[in-house]
Amino acid sequence: MDFIALSRISLKHLTVLHVMLTTHSVTSTANTLCVTPSSVSKTMAQLREQLNDELFYRDGSQLVPTPFALGIAAQIHKILASMNGILHQGEFNPAQFNGSIALSMRESTFELFAGKISLIREQLPQANQINVYAKEQMSFDSLIRGQVDFMILPHDISQPPTTSRELVWQQLLSDEMVCLMNPAHPLVEKTLTTEDYLAYQHIGIQDRDLSEPYFEQNLKQQHGTRRVAMSVADFGAAAVMCHHSMYLLTCSKMWAQHAFQAKGLVQKPLPFEYGKVAYSLVWNEVSLNDPALQWLHAILVD
């Protein structure tokens, strides 16, 4: 072990780099850490020299991390999470917490958990901020790097959200899938059959992280491939399109019952086997070294 080299890099250096990897901004990092921008720049200059890498390069007005910086982000998160656990041992007092919390989820998922997130905010009156990012913006890599604390997402039970050994997932809610359609759709007055389902065009939901859903695979093997006319980012956008078209939308039943965008659409059960679906919580195993995140985990899974 190179003690001399290690002595030249402090937790301050690693903390600044960790925050920079989330903000991509010297000014935002300085605000988060309550220091001056010049202090952040000085710390980053020292770290670049010690690690022999630029760490960030400028692309227009944006600071972009180098491949090396992204590659070491997960290890830095582990170091800081372990040290944070040592510094904050004992019981957690929500009323005195003044840090930040970051969650990631689809916009449609937020509609189901907004009440719980509001409750969390109320129990953390001194918290600096609660950030809720779109899953497309902060996904599994962000959990591994410690840029977000927890992710909540809908998925097939047969299709774990991730195969990464560093991430843990836990089911929060069981759900069903339904087919939504415009109230003027020709299928409204009929019992939905698989043949009818395949006869019309559909709206698909994009997700570059998860493989093809089980219901899609099983439908293709047993009956045929559905015709996806267009793909959108989320259930909400898809429901809006249903209001303006004769496309069918296959989505979460829980979401369909709560979402404003789905109101007025006709809901029908799927006429074929699609497995089991649920909403799950995903997190980086080392994050629970932090008593604040242990508390937040308990609230989310309650």
Describe the structure.
This is HTH-type transcriptional regulator YidZ. One of its GO terms (molecular function) is DNA-binding transcription factor activity. Pfam families: HTH_1, LysR_substrate. The chain is 42% helix and 23% strand. With 302 residues, the chain is α/β, with parallel strands linked by helices. Helix 6 links the parallel strand 3 (100-105) and strand 4 (129-134). Helix 2 crosses helix 3 and helix 3 packs across helix 4 (37-51). It is elongated.
Helix-strand layout with pairing:
Blueprint: H1 3-7, H2 11-23, H3 26-33, H4 37-51, E1 56-59, E2 62-65, H5 67-87, E3 100-105, H6 107-123, E4 129-134, H7 140-145, E5 150-156, E6 167-175, E7 177-181, H8 194-199, E8 201-205, H9 214-222, E9 227-232, H10 235-243, E10 248-252, H11 253-258, E11 266-269, E12 277-284, H12 291-301
Parallel strand pairs: 3-4, 3-5, 8-9, 8-10
Antiparallel strand pairs: 1-2, 5-12, 6-12, 7-10, 7-11
Distance between the termini: 44 Å
Query: Regarding quaternary structure, how should these chains be classified?
Result: single chain
Unreliable segments of 5+ consecutive residues: none
Order of helices and strands: HHHHEEHEHEHEEEHEHEHEHEEH
Could you report the average pLDDT, rounded to the nearest whole number? 87
So what's the overall shape?
elongated
The strand count comes to: 12
Compute the CA-based radius of gyration.
23 Å
Structural class: alpha/beta
> CATH homologous superfamily of the largest domain, by name?
Periplasmic binding protein-like II
> What is the number of independent domains?
3
Biggest sheet character? 5 strands, mixed
In order across it, which strands form the biggest sheet?
4-3-5-12-6
CATH-defined architecture of the largest domain: 3-Layer(aba) Sandwich
- In percent, how helical is the residue content? 40-55%
CATH topology of the largest domain: D-Maltodextrin-Binding Protein, domain 2
InterPro entries: LysR-type_TF, LysR_HTH_N, LysR_subst-bd, WH-like_DNA-bd_sf, WH_DNA-bd_sf, YidZ_PBP2
Family: Belongs to the LysR transcriptional regulatory family.
GO molecular function, one term: DNA binding
Organism: Vibrio scophthalmi
